[in-house]
């Protein structure tokens, strides 16, 4: 059993081949974290790692002979208000107004496999032997409440999945004001914090900063995980690189408001807390009710950032994403958004679709503008039936026309939103989240439906189920184009308003669950003004996400590089769009654009009717090339090689699991005049294999060792043949 309990020491050792996580019960019954890192031997006591020290100004948590101060103890799940003056993992308000909790060890259970935490998304096992789980039950005897901490360790991955559940077994209600998914106290603070931050159209840029005393945090209070900060933090040593060194990765399986913070105390220890954001949350727990936190995924490796990413990619690609599309190659699509926006007719769309078919596109996606009175963004959201002026055949008949052309058909929806100019709003003005007596802030002229109410979710489900059932739909793009403001539900009492933000997300999960269950063959792609909700919670329902509204290849190098820190390449929606790019006016050749978009769920998003015959021929060739290497691009082991955040160049490689095939890419950002040789080295190959290496029409055989340690020299003149700035090259390596 890879979870060991030493009775005398009251010590739990959770381990697999590569990692160990060690907890023990303190003298006062609370839990202490003794160790988290590389695998340590089992059967041993690690109690000596306890840092027992009362200092001036510290409060003790026992009045026994040992001076134990919670402030200096690495705690497992600290609660508010005892002797620990750092931010804590939970804060519970009790009937008398007190916030002091004392959760003490009661019992524990160890079992094979992993339990679901429905309705929340979570990682899973397909077979009980893939993982072992421990549930440690703590009890607060004064209020008769339990706290159940659950940890699952995966056999073959350096991963621990954890969550917390609060149970009220007392007669009197308590109010949870803060309930983190997990806390980790590390014994030193010599780390850099890595996070993925940005904004609309520049999501998930990699930020790195040294830890300093005090709190450094990322968060969202927007009701969505957000474009501003992705729910991910890594702590790495200063010397850690992509291929060597220690990293702890923390990723929250949640799509709503969250907080992730790292606190360095005055004695140089580090505390990581991650969970639902407490400022937009409070939860009254009545007798016999329980509250379940989202899951926190923790990865530890001593082999660098790529190794951390592989753990996330494998876990999220194989044991978070579900359904028939999890392992299937994703279709090459054409989306009409950047080609037409909402300005189209059935005839113009059919013409575009025929052109798409003629170059080899497999799936045609009709984006925003097909429903209600949707001619601009002021109207229509909420009315999920065809706009008959634009689409006289209706979606039902139209979808069959696309199928007849020889492509699959996909449809855009934005189910969580409503325009005031819609039949849905005229019939149900009470369906929106807004605070009585206060101004309701419009955003893109739309408002957020109150998905904390079942009847609202039911109404949307009814409309969508009907149109999807009656049409030939193979793909759905589920968009969400604004954040939540004035969060208030008219069906909730004053003491229940703190639940609404979280219940909203549960409503979104509920609708996803119903639609994906009813239509298991449909491929879902999530989207939120591009990548404003690119998070593990969404991946549980939709195996791919539209990465960013910024389709400029130059910008996408950074966005996709950052996204790859956590998310599998098969989950990254990436399209070739027009040049000059609509947002940046930057011009990049058709191959330069594809060389970036290939590393993802690939497609096109431009008006094919405006392209030259040459470019259409290039697209045909690109589709043939991508089809040949699609499995490598989407499901290969992806290694970052050179960071666009650290210099003018970027590089990465996808390698098949058996290392017999790889496709690498090298990108320059600004062109350089009279520059030196370009030497490109690779990662992830097998030293001893011979690889036929092809790029720019060259074909040579090199060993893996040559390719990784000596690299290849690329002539800059060749590199610059199509593009100067943002020139790129793909290098294909096949074992011979
Ligand atoms: C969002 C999406 C785009 C497109 C538009 C349609 O911005 O990210 O891809 O679907 O909405 O309104």
The number of distinct structural domains comes to: 3
SS elements, strand count: 38
User: What overall form do the CA principal axes indicate?
Assistant: globular
Which stretches are poorly predicted, pLDDT < 50 over at least 5 residues?
Answer: none
> Portion of residues in helices?
10-25%
Q: Structural class from helices and strands?
A: alpha+beta
Instruction: Tell me the number of helical segments per DSSP (H or I, 4 or more residues long).
Output: 13
Largest sheet: 10 strands, antiparallel
Gyration radius (Cα, Å) is: 27 Å
What is the end-to-end distance? Answer: 43 Å
Distinct small-molecule ligands in the complex: alpha-D-galactopyranose
Instruction: Please state roughly what percent of the residues sit in beta strands, choosing from under 5%, 5-15%, 15-25%, 25-35%, 35-45% or over 45%.
Output: 25-35%
Under CATH, the topology of the largest domain can be stated as Beta-galactosidase, Chain A, domain 5
Report mean pLDDT, rounded to a whole number: 97
CATH class of the largest domain: Mainly Beta
CATH architecture identity of the largest domain = Distorted Sandwich
The CATH superfamily of the largest domain bears the name: alpha-galactosidase from lactobacil brevis
Question: How would you describe the oligomerization state of the chains in this entry?
Answer: single chain
């Amino acid at each position: 059993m890879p979870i060991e309990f030493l009775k005398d020491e009251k010590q739990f050792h959770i381990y697999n081949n590569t990692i160990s996580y060690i907890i023990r019960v303190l003298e006062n019954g609370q839990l202490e974290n003794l160790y988290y890192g590389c695998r340590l031997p089992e059967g041993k006591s690690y109690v000596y790692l306890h840092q027992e020290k009362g200092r001036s100004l510290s409060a003790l948590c026992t009045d026994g002979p040992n001076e134990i101060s919670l402030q200096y103890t690495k705690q497992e799940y600290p609660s508010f208000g005892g002797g620990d003056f750092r931010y804590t993992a939970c804060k519970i308000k009790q009937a008398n107004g007190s916030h002091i909790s004392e959760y003490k060890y009661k019992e524990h259970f160890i079992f094979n496999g992993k339990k679901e935490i429905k309705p929340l998304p979570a990682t899973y096992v397909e077979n009980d032997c893939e993982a072992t789980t421990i549930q440690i039950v703590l009890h607060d005897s004064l209020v008769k409440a339990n706290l159940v901490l659950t940890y699952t360790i995966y056999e073959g991955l350096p991963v621990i999945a954890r969550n917390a559940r609060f149970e009220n077994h007392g007669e009197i209600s308590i109010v949870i004001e803060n309930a983190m998914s997990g806390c980790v106290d590390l014994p030193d603070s010599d780390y850099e914090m890595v996070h993925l931050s940005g904004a609309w159209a520049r999501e998930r840029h990699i930020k790195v900063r040294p830890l300093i005393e005090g709190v450094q945090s990322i968060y969202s209070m927007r009701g969505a995980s957000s474009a501003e900060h992705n729910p991910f933090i890594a702590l790495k040593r200063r010397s850690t690189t992509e291929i060597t060194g220690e990293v702890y990765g923390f990723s929250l399986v949640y799509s709503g408001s969250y907080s992730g913070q790292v606190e360095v105390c005055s004695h140089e220890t580090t505390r990581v807390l991650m969970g639902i954001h407490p400022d937009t949350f409070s939860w009254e727990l009545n007798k016999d009710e329980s509250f379940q936190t989202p899951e926190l995924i923790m990865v530890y490796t001593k082999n660098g950032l790529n190794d951390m990413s592989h753990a996330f990619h494998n876990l999220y690609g194989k044991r978070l994403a579900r359904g028939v599309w999890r392992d299937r190659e994703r279709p090459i699509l054409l989306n009409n958004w950047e080609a037409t926006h909402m300005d189209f007719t059935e005839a113009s769309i059919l013409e575009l679709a025929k052109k798409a078919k003629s170059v080899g596109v497999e799936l045609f996606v009709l984006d925003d503008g097909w429903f209600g009175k949707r001619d601009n963004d002021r109207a229509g959201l909420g009315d999920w039936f065809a706009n008959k002026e634009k689409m006289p055949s209706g979606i039902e008949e139209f979808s069959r026309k696309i199928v007849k052309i020889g492509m699959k058909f996909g449809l855009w929806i934005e189910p969580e939103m409503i325009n005031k100019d819609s039949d849905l709003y005229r019939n149900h003005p009470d369906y929106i989240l807004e605070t009585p007596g206060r101004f309701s802030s419009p955003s893109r002229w739309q408002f957020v439906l109150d998905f904390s109410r079942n009847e609202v979710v039911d109404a949307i489900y009814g409309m969508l189920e009907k149109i999807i059932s009656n049409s030939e739909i193979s793909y759905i793009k589920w968009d969400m184009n604004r954040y939540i403001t004035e969060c208030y539900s008219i069906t909730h009492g004053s003491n229940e308003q703190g639940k609404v933000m979280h219940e909203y997300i549960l409503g979104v999960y509920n609708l996803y669950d119903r639609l994906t269950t009813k239509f298991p063959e449909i491929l879902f792609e999530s989207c939120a003004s591009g990548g404003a909700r690119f998070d593990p919670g969404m991946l549980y329902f939709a195996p791919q996400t539209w990465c960013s509204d910024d389709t400029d290849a130059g910008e996408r190098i950074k966005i996709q590089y950052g996204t790859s820190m956590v998310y599998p390449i098969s989950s990254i929606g990436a399209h070739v769009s027009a040049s000059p790019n609509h947002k940046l006016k930057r011009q990049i050749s058709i191959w330069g654009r594809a060389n970036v978009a290939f590393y993802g769920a690939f497609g096109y998003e431009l008006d094919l009717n405006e392209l030259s015959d040459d470019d259409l021929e290039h697209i045909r060739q690109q589709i043939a090339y991508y089809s040949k290497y699609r499995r490598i691009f989407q499901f290969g082991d992806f290694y970052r090689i050179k960071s666009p955040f650290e210099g003018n160049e970027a590089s990465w490689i996808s390698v098949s699991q058996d290392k017999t095939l790889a496709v690498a890419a090298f990108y320059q950002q600004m062109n350089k005049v009279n520059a030196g040789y370009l030497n490109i080295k690779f990662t992830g190959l097998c030293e001893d294999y011979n690889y036929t290496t092809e790029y720019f029409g060259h074909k040579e055989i090199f060993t893996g060792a040559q390719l990784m340690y000596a690299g290849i020299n690329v002539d800059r003149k060749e590199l610059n043949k199509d593009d100067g700035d943002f020139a790129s090259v793909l290098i294909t390596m096949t074992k011979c």
